[in-house]
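Q: Could you write out the predicted structure for this multi-component system? I'm mainly interested in how the pieces pack against one another.
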Amino acid sequence: MIFMRRIRQNPSYLKGEKSSALELAHGRLVLMSGVFGLVYLLIALRALDLSVIQAQKIDPELRLADRVASAPDSYPVNGQTAMRADIVDRNGVMLATTLKTASLFADTRFIAEPEQAAKALNKIFPHMPYGDLLQKLQSGKSFVWLKRNITPDEQKRILEIGEPGLAFEQSTRRYYPQESLAGHLLGYTNVDSNGLSGVERSFDAYLGQGKKPLRLSLDIRFQHALRREMQAAMDEFRAIGAAGVIMDVRNGEILAGVSLPDFNPHDMNNADKNQSFSRLTQGAYELGSVFKIFSTAAFLEIRNMPMHTKFDAREPIRKGRFTINDFHAQKRILTIPEVFMHSSNIGTAMMAEAIGGDALQKFYYDLGVMTPMDFEIKEVARPLVPNPWREISTLTASYGHGVSTTPLQLAAGVSSVVNGGYLVTPRLVLSDEPQDNPEIRILSEETSHKMRQLLRIVVSEGTGSKAAVKGYKVGGKTGTAEKIVGGRYDNDKKLSSFVGIFPSDAPKYAVYIMVDEPKGHKGTWGYATGGWVAAPAVARIIASIAAIEGLMPSTENANPFGSALKQYIAAEAVP
Amino acid sequence: MKKFSLKNFVIFALAGLSGAALLHTSQNVQHAEEVLAKMQRELAHEEEAMRVLRAEWAYLNRPERLERLAEEFLELVPPAPDKMPENMRDAASSLQEGIINEEQAQPVRYQEEAP
């Protein structure tokens, strides 16, 4: 105020001091308005940016929910989703994967034309009645399930209806492209993707992390060949079930493993106990004469007797209330190769007696056929061993009666015998790093070689002749066991099996098939033994393996493996 | 105090410039984030599509199906020793015979009997 009065009273005062004060005020005004102008300009620019520039960039597909979800940190690192990991076979063929599936629901408040929509849906899902659909669509509810887990194709067709009230909810679902083929070993999951059996169960934690695929030792081509021939054998002999395995004898890797009947892993609600039960690993059976491979190997290893050692098989062995008889009775004195190729129970029991019960038991335990398997899936049976082990147990165990084990363990035991004599255990999961397992020797190389020769003789001269494949060297052993029904061996209910090794001079594959309760027919003169039921199936599987692996057939006479044993075989053998 | 010092002008100009630069940068970042989000969405979409296609591929390549189709459309038979030429020369000669001999003008698929 003093300043203004001074200007009025003395205009000359403006000069000098006064003019500089005015200029200062003016400058401040300009500055203030400049700042405000700038701020307004910024606000205007921002408004323009939000309303015009950015509005064009917003993806019309992008809804609010997506924009919330698209915050960068909600995306998993490296595009890896936390979906349950895949399972693949040894060649990388997909066995199990997780897919996003859509489930269809309706918000009936937005249904424009219920009749039209119901008609269109009925066309896509013919099993859903029109009236039922119409009722649901007209219910007025904001959420009605119409169909769970629809395929992408069905989803596309539903979108094409163009009905705004039909919507989808995304969820994940375990999918098995090979369907029932890899069945029991692979296992299955429930709707929440929790593994309930097989590898799905035992590797549930690993698979749930969604890391890289789990690689199994299975080869889907072998798996198919095995299953196909097992099914054919089951159909031909009207059997109630079958188990089979193809194993790499050098390391115990399971190339194929099948138990029939099997299940569709997508439809476990309709699978009964008989289907979900794995005869391969969960069933412990008295497997019969295939055990002679083990008892004969033990005899050769422990007693180291020459091949021409004689066994008197003219009379049955009587021990207390037991009588041991031969099925393919020769009723004469037999050499070791003859005992083996005619599958003489009498001769084999004599071998077991010669080495003693303790030694035989120890060898069976060493082979791993008498203890529960240490295996990568949890569904394994406990083998049954006679307790107490009596003198008669030694005799019957030599030809596979009175002791029960799983078909898978038997195949591993045979692998250990023929691979040069070191122990292998069944393996289902392949490791990236080469496994450096210590070599546990259970037989000498020499005994293993003799066993390969004996197995070859069984196919070329003995009970396993139907397992012969022209052009390939197959060895093997038949086994026919009677099932125990009501505490007694039932002659009509058999377990007929055959184990084949191939190529017999330097085995790579062991193929084992067991058929449960086969019934003979005219073509087999009523026989349903291992040699009639399982051996031909094994022959067809080995032919398939040869084709898959591209192995050239050769003429048999070029290298007659096992023929060295022929000198011990009497010419007058009863066939 | 001086009227409009050069110093003040420079300061305000710098402030204005940096404000404009900040706005520009923030706009760029927003835009880049949107592009990124869109790409990630597309990536997830593509990955999902790949999963489905891989599953479909595995389903269509089921050994059982291939076997059925091969039986239906291909005239191939499983290998057997009597269907194998002894060596490549035999294979070549049998093929040649097939070409020379007019009566056997059909392609020789395999040798029926080993000589």
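A: Regarding packing and overall arrangement: The two ends of chain A are 140 Å apart (CA to CA).
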